[in-house]
Amino acid sequence: MAEIKPTASASVKATSVQPKKSSNLISWIAPVVCIIAGYAIWRFMMGAASGFKEPDAAGGFWPHHVGPKDAFHRIYEGGIIVPLLIGMFLIVIVFSIERLLTIKKALGNGSISDFVRKVQYHLANRNVDAALSECDKQRGSVGNVMKAGLRRYKEMINEGGLTTEQKVVSIQKEVEEATALELPMLQKNLVFLSTITSVGTLIALLGTVMGMIKSFAALGEDGGAGAANSLAVGISEALYNTALGIGTSALALIMYNVFTTKIDSITYGIDESGFTLTQSFASLYK
Fold it and tell me: What would the pLDDT profile of 132-156 be if each residue is shown by its tens digit?
């Protein structure tokens, strides 16, 4: 029977990378709070009785005020779709701030390319401890992945039971597992921005259609000059919804593209780190 050589997966130690603990609390609470805040802004600020010539004294969930005194209170006439759009706008703001802080932390200190070059220099001089020290200074996602790989790199230098190829595979596996734990944290909650990019426009279109329905219904019922006021209210409802929806979707799209670009730069740095470790070990420790 032919001798079976041990494979890297059977001989290599389990990964030392530990899963990161993260909370999804903001993902559940923030959208609900933002929608409630959107309604509060629409109902109690834009729909304040003092901002209308003929306020609806009965009040309630959706008072039918007439004659807004200024542009801010005129937005109230946009109808019940407006608070939903305001809530979506607030969601974009909240998750943009949350992603900004997270990605800023993930970028770490200094330039990623400079960090990788310093690690390459230390590895070329067989100074793994100095390379690990650079990872501690970087304190970002690239540094975390590089540090996990360097720890396995250091173990493999003195490992006598594996071939060079198996050692390289072990280092590569460690980098891949560390990467698999870092990337989800970077992409988390971006789904809210990508969803609002398209859904915001659709909801605005719904508000626009509702406003136009109200306009043509007023023309059909009253006709002539008597329908002018109802027609104006219906058109304003349509246009305010359109403006809010387009503005919200545009902001969400811009922020989504900004964050994905930053994540791509981090991902490229991680890929370069893995390549640096495997190529360095393969060339120095044959």
Answer: 999 999 999 999 999 999 999 999 9
